[in-house]
Write a sequence for this structure.
């Protein structure tokens, strides 16, 4: 039942997102669209309540409860970024707004962006671990909570791998490709550089 509810929440997330964006831009009903977008956290609340009830009714903690906690954590850590990204593109394509500014592509600016995204994964792991720990405490010694603790370990391993990937952008910054010069033209020199000229042989030196 928990897995089915996770799938339902995921589908409901995208349905509410599409309905909210459609109401905000093509239908010109921004308040209705905002209300639909604000309903999305209710899906996570519903999943959390059903998971707690399932455990309270004597269900043995297993991977399905861990999956529910991980889904909620991911939504908290990265859901707002997904909504913001899609809202920017919808505003551009449907509402006539300027194109959204994408993330920086090179250098330390890209490294800082990747670090910010990684913080979302840390938040996701922390939220998931908190829910799993509460579930383990709720079950107590009456049941086996090893699966819940395994999911906690998995959440932090995933955040650790993501952290190494983000760190690689700082250690080896991605360089911008060299600008192409027109055929037969001269490569522009950086501002402030001096062009070397051949010495005039007729010029007398002291």
């Amino acid at each position: 039942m928990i897995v089915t509810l996770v799938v339902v929440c995921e589908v409901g997330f995208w349905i509410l997102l599409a309905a909210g964006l459609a109401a905000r831009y093509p239908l010109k009903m921004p308040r209705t669209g905002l209300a639909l977008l604000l309903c999305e956290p209710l899906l996570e609340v519903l999943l959390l309540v059903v998971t707690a009830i399932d455990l309270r009714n004597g269900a043995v903690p297993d991977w399905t409860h861990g999956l529910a906690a991980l889904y909620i954590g991911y939504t908290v850590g990265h859901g707002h970024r997904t909504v913001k990204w899609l809202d920017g593109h919808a505003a551009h394509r449907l509402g006539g707004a300027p194109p959204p500014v994408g993330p920086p592509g090179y250098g330390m600016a890209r490294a800082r962006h990747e670090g910010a995204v990684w913080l979302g994964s840390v938040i996701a792991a922390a939220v998931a671990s908190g829910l799993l720990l509460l579930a383990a405490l709720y079950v107590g010694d009456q049941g086996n909570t090893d699966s819940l603790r395994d999911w906690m370990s998995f959440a932090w391993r995933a955040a650790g791998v993501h952290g190494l990937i983000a760190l690689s952008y700082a250690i080896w910054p991605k360089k911008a490709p060299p600008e192409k010069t027109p055929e037969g033209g001269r490569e522009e020199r950086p501002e402030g550089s001096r062009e070397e000229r051949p010495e005039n042989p007729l010029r007398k030196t002291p």
